[in-house]
Amino acid sequence: MDINRRCDYAFRILRVAHERAGAFVSVAEISELEDIPYAFARSIQHDLVQAGMLKTVRGAHGGLSLNCDPYEVTMYDLLQALGEPVSVSTCSRDPEFCQKKETCAFHAMWRGADNLLENYFKAITLGDVLDKGERHFVVQEALAATFAGRDLDASA
């Protein structure tokens, strides 16, 4: 899994849309505010509109705005909308990648890591990340829940 520039920019576009809740903001303004190349921002905006995360209105007072409840959209949903696989290894997500997966000692480990990542990102909403209030620690809570009941201290 690679949180690439496209993902980073998409998250920043959504942050601005969230901060300007109820108002439309132009892609040009977001591009300037967030140091995102304009053409790249337009491309990402299109993907986020297609995924239902943003809505757009044309015209002098148009722009984009959030089209979803940020507490209903998980970070997993966003990664999927951007076409990013939530996986740590090609062998665990592509059945044709390696013919030895049935006997490989590492394949099950990579699948387990993928499951942890998937559950982690499904436990965190866009609103959780963007909200600076009482839900600020939900990310840490999601991680703690992922490992709940698991003794990670090998020396004990």
UniProtKB/TrEMBL annotation:
Pfam families membership: Rrf2
GO cellular component annotations of the record: cytosol
Alphabetical list of SUPFAM superfamilies matching this protein: Winged helix' DNA-binding domain
InterPro entries: Tscrpt_reg_Rrf2, WH-like_DNA-bd_sf, WH_DNA-bd_sf
Gene3D superfamilies: Winged helix-like DNA-binding domain superfamily/Winged helix DNA-binding domain
PROSITE patterns: HTH_RRF2_2
GO molecular function: DNA-binding transcription factor activity
Annotated PANTHER family: HTH-TYPE TRANSCRIPTIONAL REGULATOR YWGB-RELATED, WINGED HELIX-TURN-HELIX TRANSCRIPTIONAL REGULATOR, RRF2 FAMILY
Full protein name: Rrf2 family transcriptional regulator
Organism: Xiamenia xianingshaonis
